[in-house]
Amino acid sequence: MLSLTVLLLMTLNPVLTNNLTQEIDVLVFLPKNNSFLFSQARVAPAIRYAQHALTAQFPNFHFSLQLQDSDSVNQAVFALADRSCERKPDLILGPVREYEAAAVVRLASHWNIPVVSAGALAVAFRNKDSEYSHLTRIAPSYMKMAEVFSAMFERFSWRSALLLIEDDMKERDCYFTLEAVYHVMDDYTVKSLTFSEEEPLRSDEILQNIRDTEVVIMCAGADRIREIMLAAHKQQLTNGSYIFFNVDLFNASSYGNGSWKRGDEHDDDARQAYASLNTVTLLRTVKPEYRNFSIEIKKSTDRLGLRDCSDCGNVNMFVEGFHDAMLLYAVALHEAMKNGYSKKNGTEITSHMWNITFEGIAGQVSMDINGDRNGDFSLMAMTNVEAGSYEVVANYFGVNKTFQLMSAFDSKRFMIKGRHEANPELPQKSCELGVSALTGVTVGALLGAVMLIAFYFFRKNYRIIIQRRTHGEEPYCGKHHQLQEDSIKSNSSAA
Ligand SMILES: *[C@@H]1O[C@H](CO)[C@@H](O)[C@H](O)[C@H]1NC(C)=O
Ligand SMILES: *[C@@H]1O[C@H](CO)[C@@H](O)[C@H](O)[C@H]1NC(C)=O
Ligand SMILES: *[C@@H]1O[C@H](CO)[C@@H](O)[C@H](O)[C@H]1NC(C)=O
Ligand SMILES: *[C@@H]1O[C@H](CO)[C@@H](O)[C@H](O)[C@H]1NC(C)=O
Ligand SMILES: *[C@@H]1O[C@H](CO)[C@@H](O)[C@H](O)[C@H]1NC(C)=O
Ligand SMILES: *[C@@H]1O[C@H](CO)[C@@H](O)[C@H](O)[C@H]1NC(C)=O
Ligand SMILES: *[C@@H]1O[C@H](CO)[C@@H](O)[C@H](O)[C@H]1NC(C)=O
Ligand SMILES: *[C@@H]1O[C@H](CO)[C@@H](O)[C@H](O)[C@H]1NC(C)=O
Ligand SMILES: *[C@@H]1O[C@H](CO)[C@@H](O)[C@H](O)[C@H]1NC(C)=O
């Protein structure tokens, strides 16, 4: 009986037959600064939790974790280079931020080291043919989020969008977020306005541009969103003729019930304005194991007694993602070894992390054939205007690209009312357009490179870069893809 069990175990788990212990060097790039949702203190407990859980399943995998700061842009890639003089790591987790990730992933791909990150969400990283070949993205990228919009545009027959982007010129999260939306909407008229955090709201320009569009998609801080919604409400643009969205993927406390509330005299207007604002966010799922996980994470961060963040114990997408990264890697390594390859064959291991579905800590994780996670998103809308309360009205599943409509869903909300019959879009030659009134910089695409240059020259008064694309034009004069790559490159080398 016993020997039968052993035999079964041996056939089920061939690694057990090879009882040589595998020492796996894991280099983790995360910032120390706890103002990031993916700081070491927040994420490391999740990685350790996974490490612990894996000892039962893969007893001869010994993971040794080394946490490496990545607080400044080049710190991460220099650390990787220095460390690798002696011994290259077997696995890299992180970095999250785009500019660090670009440098680290390029070097790691060259050295045949697998990288799994819950970040590197920008569009450029989907290019796995060459420089980002060893990158696996365990959290849904911005491109996956953007699918929600292309699916909605198709479903509701919308035709035009205005992207309002608050760009901090540092992390540039909002810029990268809506860049992806821009990217997937080839078939629609899309215009974008970029503004800085510090400048006062240019409401006239913004309102004028809203009038020319059907759908407004915003990514900005919560206060800025409120300002824009109040301004739009004042001009009666929240009467159903325009559809407003904001994208807020990570910070659960900043959307939903009461996000309009500030305790000032504008609360009432804001509540009414937000009645036409929909929020796109990550779909949250829970399963029993997850509760235990989040309790453990909270305990670990409490033990550290972090004082510089109040919500450090909260589990977010990055915390979950890096946990699941460990599971995914272990399974892939196991598969690679079963095929007779060693842990040093990063290409082989990476290939086993793509095009599979596995059970993550919060639910099923499905990786597409390009090594990017399929994303699930929720659409939230105000369902009770008196109370100003929000509910999830629909979910979008990336794996089968379908919507699940909830009982609170009301399709009337997404119908554009009383316009456009007599307002056909005039076709325009896009490459002649796009001159920013203030800077005089001509912009050919939604791009980092030119904007960055503009920023250095006009740091004080840079404000709005307008560029537009009209229906049916050539796919962006062939410049877009290239510039996008440049944006990552030039920024990482400039800093
Ligand atoms: C592997 O297993 C064999 C037999 O079970 C044992 O003799 C050997 O010492 C083990 N090797 C290691 C490295 O544990
Ligand atoms: C942490 O990051 C925030 C936001 O980027 C910054 O304001 C703060 O100075 C940083 N703290 C430290 C200790 O570097
Ligand atoms: C999350 O949102 C809240 C409320 O808007 C804000 O105070 C907080 O700074 C945000 N946190 C992060 C990490 O963005
Ligand atoms: C939760 O996890 C801890 C440690 O990982 C374990 O000891 C405990 O049994 C788990 N509890 C449940 C309910 O699974
Ligand atoms: C790594 O694996 C690939 C197959 O995925 C194989 O073609 C290659 O020869 C292997 N490299 C080494 C050094 O074993
Ligand atoms: C992806 O996986 C499916 C099912 O596991 C398989 O049929 C398909 O051939 C795979 N595609 C690639 C490109 O490997
Ligand atoms: C908002 O409040 C309503 C009613 O109190 C509740 O049903 C809903 O779940 C809440 N939504 C969020 C996101 O908390
Ligand atoms: C799509 O996938 C989700 C999640 O896996 C599932 O709940 C849903 O039923 C699927 N929908 C269709 C139409 O297959
Ligand atoms: C809403 O307001 C806009 C601009 O003031 C106007 O053009 C439109 O006809 C109004 N729509 C409805 C349904 O009242």
TrEMBL record:
InterPro entries: ANF_lig-bd_rcpt (IPR001828), ANP_Clearance_Receptor (IPR052612), ANPR/GUC (IPR001170), Peripla_BP_I (IPR028082). Keywords: Glycoprotein, Membrane, Receptor, Signal, Transmembrane, Transmembrane helix. SUPFAM superfamilies: Periplasmic binding protein-like I. It holds the Pfam family ANF_receptor. One of its GO terms (biological process) is signal transduction. GO terms for cellular component: membrane. Gene3D superfamilies: 3.40.50.2300. The chain crosses the membrane at residues 433-458. It is found in: Membrane. It comes from the Eukaryota. GO terms for molecular function: natriuretic peptide receptor activity; peptide hormone binding. Residues 43-383 form the Receptor ligand binding region domain. It is a single-pass type I membrane protein. Residues 1-17 form the signal peptide. This is Natriuretic peptide receptor 3.
